[in-house]
Amino acid sequence: MIKGLFFDISGVLLDGPNLIAGADKAIELVKQKNLPIRLLTNTSQQTCDTLLGQLNNARLGVTKDEIYTAPLAAKDYIQTHDLRPYCLIHPNLVPEFAALDQNNPNAVVIGDAADDFNYQTLNKAFRLCIEGAPLIAIGHNKYFKKSGEFFLDAGPFVEAIEYACDIKAIITGKPSLDFFNQVLLSVELKADEVALIGDDVYGDIYGAQSAGMDSRLVRTGKYREGDENKVSPTAIVVDDVLQAVEDLIA
Amino acid sequence: MIKGLFFDISGVLLDGPNLIAGADKAIELVKQKNLPIRLLTNTSQQTCDTLLGQLNNARLGVTKDEIYTAPLAAKDYIQTHDLRPYCLIHPNLVPEFAALDQNNPNAVVIGDAADDFNYQTLNKAFRLCIEGAPLIAIGHNKYFKKSGEFFLDAGPFVEAIEYACDIKAIITGKPSLDFFNQVLLSVELKADEVALIGDDVYGDIYGAQSAGMDSRLVRTGKYREGDENKVSPTAIVVDDVLQAVEDLIA
Question: Do B163 and A155 make contact, defined as CB atoms within 8 angstroms?
Fold first, then answer.
């Protein structure tokens, strides 16, 4: 019995800034049944406010507290543990962490900092971590493609600091179990009462399976023929988010 | 029967720019017996010419072809495999690679590039490696200390590119077996005919043991009480390089 639903955003609800057909009706259906929802994304460059603006522009009726991002999970971790972070993150994300005390840091938050990755900033992160500061990583992706070119994502820089200090980072975002547990806590539901709808067979479906949640893989977004066979048990595939919701809660 | 001797430089023959007592006599003894020598170092910032100048200033009678460094091993690899490297290395090392064709690169040489590590240079290395260019690493150290401050060494950046591209770097320098085999080849001796004298129980003694060479650990340089017990079999410890040479070839 599904009592709550988690949605990936990009490729499931939105295609770039545009609504994916049926996504508005899908969200409406869940809200009519009064089931809690969370929109989960591994964005390394967008604040919750920016995302909410995008979702509102696409006329998806969601509120800010229904959005849960990898950067927000990092922020939650920092606040829960009463830490003062040195943030090596994308300039667009700076507002998300602006309210935190970042003086005399005793933790490192590392994300897709792009041009802010350099020998000075990486040495600063390294010197904190070798003294015992926890390393909190916003995602762990290897690389991304932009305008046809490859760029290093946060993952390789996280690996660099981990190797230098002989430590393991706390990784926020899908498919991290800690991340899902944090979201489950926020809706006060158990894993087997929730389903996740996504287009990424690893981050979404493998993640949901590992956490003990039900899941549906949509054929929109980054889905490629045969993706469903990359996890065990095989993912349940549906055409789009509307069909997923009808399948799960109708 | 020892037919050739390998020496670490820093902490064995030199302390900074200064001769370690007895080092001149040690080299002299070996040369009197007409045994080939090689001075091996993992320097990531010095060319063979710079090192030779230092050794000459300390009045150690060695020639340029008796010096073998990690950067030189990288250069040899590049030349043997007829590659065109993109060199992400320390500015001081640039002359060592200047004679190589570096246009339209199809290999990456990565060392302790210090301030030259940034998002642009690392993306350039990454884009070459993800297209199949081999990654040749000058050493794999985690960090070093300079003027009381910690700095990231080449190792973490090598790990970053390895992770991003799912590849393994070719690592030059001690204790790499390939490195020792290359030096053994240059003196036309087998491993069991050579001994290595060093102050680093891992890079020197563990390396020598893995390659099948005899070795002596000196109490000068970075030696710390008990270092000999960090390898198996236990390292043979001597006071200094002169005692090591007398022990090995007297």
Answer: yes
In a domain, B203, yes or no: yes
The alpha carbon of A112 is separated from its chain's Cα centroid by a whole number of angstroms, namely 13
Other C-beta atoms lying within 10 Å of the C-beta of residue B61: 11
The CA-based dihedral angle spanning residues A9, A11, A12, A13, taken in that order and rounded to the nearest 10 degrees: 60
pLDDT digits 0-9 by tens, A76-121: 999 999 999 999 999 999 999 999 999 999 999 999 999 999 999 9
User: For residues A194 and A145, what is the distance between their CA atoms, to the nearest angstrom?
Assistant: 32
Residue B56 domain flag: no
Sign of CA dihedral A174, A177, A181, A182: negative
Distance separating alpha carbons of residues A100 and B44, to the nearest angstrom: 40
Total structural domains within chain A: 2
Contact B169, B136 (CB under 8 A): yes
Tokens found for residue A50: 């920016």
To the nearest whole number, what is the mean pLDDT of chain B? 95
Report d(CA B67, CA B52) in Å as an integer.
Answer: 8
- Rounded CA-CA distance B165/B75 in Å is 23
Question: What 3-state DSSP class applies to A41?
Answer: strand
pLDDT of residue B121: 98
Q: Is A44 strand, coil or helix?
A: coil
Nearest residue of B to residue A157 by CA position? B160
Q: How many CA atoms lie within 13 A of A199 on its CB side?
A: 20
Provide the ipTM: 0.86
Mean pLDDT, residues A160-172 = 96
Q: Which residues pair with A40 in a beta bridge?
A: A8, A68
- Measured in residues, chain A has a length of 250
C-beta separation of B18 from B236 below 8 A: no
The pLDDT of residue A145 is 85
Same-domain status, B241 and B209: yes
The whole-angstrom distance between A221's CA and the closest CA on chain B is: 23
Q: Write the CB contacts of B159 (distance below 8 Å, at least 6 apart in sequence).
A: A156, A159, A160, A163
Residues A81, A167, single domain; the answer is: yes
Kindly list the residues from chain A whose CB atom is less than 8 angstroms away from the CB atom of residue B118. Answer: 115, 117-119
